[in-house]
Amino acid sequence: MTYQNIILEHAEAGKISVLTVNRPQALNALNAATLDDLASALARVAADAEVRVLLITGAGEKAFIAGADITAMRAMSALEAQAFSEKGQRVMQAIEALPIPVIALVNGYALGGGCELAMSCDWIIAAERAVFGQPEVNLGIPPGFGGTQRLSRLVGRARALELVVTGRQVKADEALRIGLVNEVVPPEQLTEKGLATARLIAAKAPVAVRVSKQAVQRGLDLDLANGCVLETSLFAFAFGTADRQEGMTAFVEKRAPKFEGK
Ligand code: DAK
């Protein structure tokens, strides 16, 4: 399958997928065609049982994604804007709903819809030159791809609201300090750091990784007691897998486990 504005590649015998938004001439801004490409690539990754981790990044040296495409949005009618918004929301939800870990490798500007897309991933690794922000107030709109909701969940109400209503941009070191990103690395090490993290995850028992993501993600919408009930049932499910037996047997036999995702 060929895409217009993204590249979908595979590494480690198909266990790691790397999705690159590829419109560097517009700093990888999200227009409708790019959102369609993303939706289709995400559906493909979701349907591929071999893939253990997805990495999402942006092409070029300057930007991860500089936001929704302002030039395209400027010309939209209200109905077109509604369709565009729905496409964007679907992409963010599709990222979040993937059963495997998704890591954003933010190589430069992650503004507006770009910051929102990065925050839809499970966590962010940033290059030192990365810049984050929700500058929509400069354009007369609030964030519209979930930014007000995900930013406040990541950095807290006060910091999120300050960033959203001022449009202030945050460099990588501050993003690390406020908990927006997990890690900051030199730009030339970003891809390798992402791949190394993905390899680490791909070597673990796939079912245990998937249910761990479910437990953390779905548990955040529950109170503690119900979150622990959810954890117990997912734990019991994983306990029934052949990989659980293999993991424990390998430990006792002092050898590396061979997990098969069963
Ligand atoms: N859209 C379209 N083109 C963009 C773009 C964008 N967001 N950002 C950059 N570009 C284009 C520039 O126009 C320029 O194109 P040419 O002039 O070369 O043709 C090229 O990329 C290089 O950009 P610059 O020349 O501006 O590069 P600089 O280094 O000088 O500046 C910058 C980099 C990232 C600081 C600057 O480009 C910038 O401020 N960009 C805009 C950032 C921004 O405001 N992003 C937020 C977009 S609003 C919705 C839901 C969600 C949304 C909307 C609606 N609904 C519910 C309906 C989301 C909204 C957004 O994301």
Topology, pairings included?
Layout: E1 6-11, E2 16-21, H1 32-47, E3 53-58, E4 63-65, H2 70-74, H3 78-97, E5 102-106, E6 109-111, H4 113-120, E7 123-127, E8 131-133, H5 147-155, H6 157-166, E9 170-171, H7 172-177, E10 183-185, H8 190-202, H9 206-219, H10 224-239, H11 242-252
Parallel strand pairs: 2-3, 3-5, 4-6, 5-7, 6-8, 7-10
Antiparallel strand pairs: 1-2, 8-9
Bound molecules: 4-(N,N-dimethylamino)cinnamoyl-COA.
Give an overview of the whole structure.
With 262 residues, the protein is an alpha/beta fold. The chain folds into two domains: 197 residues, 2-enoyl-CoA Hydratase, Chain A, domain 1 (Alpha-Beta Complex); 48 residues, Lyase 2-enoyl-coa Hydratase, Chain  A, domain 2 (Orthogonal Bundle). 49% of the residues lie in helices and 16% in strands. It contains eleven helices and ten strands. The strands form two sheets. It has a six-stranded mixed sheet with strand order 1-2-3-5-7-10, sandwiched between helices. Strands 4-6-8-9 form a four-stranded mixed sheet. Strand 2, helix 1 and strand 3 form a beta-alpha-beta unit. The longest helix is centred in the middle third of the chain and has 20 residues.
Number of domains: 2
Shape: globular
The percent range for strand residues is 15-25%
Question: How many E strands?
Answer: 10
Order of helices and strands: EEHEEHHEEHEEHHEHEHHHH
**Bound small molecules, which ones?**
4-(N,N-dimethylamino)cinnamoyl-COA
Largest sheet: 6 strands, mixed
Low-pLDDT runs of 5+ residues are none
Mean pLDDT level:
97
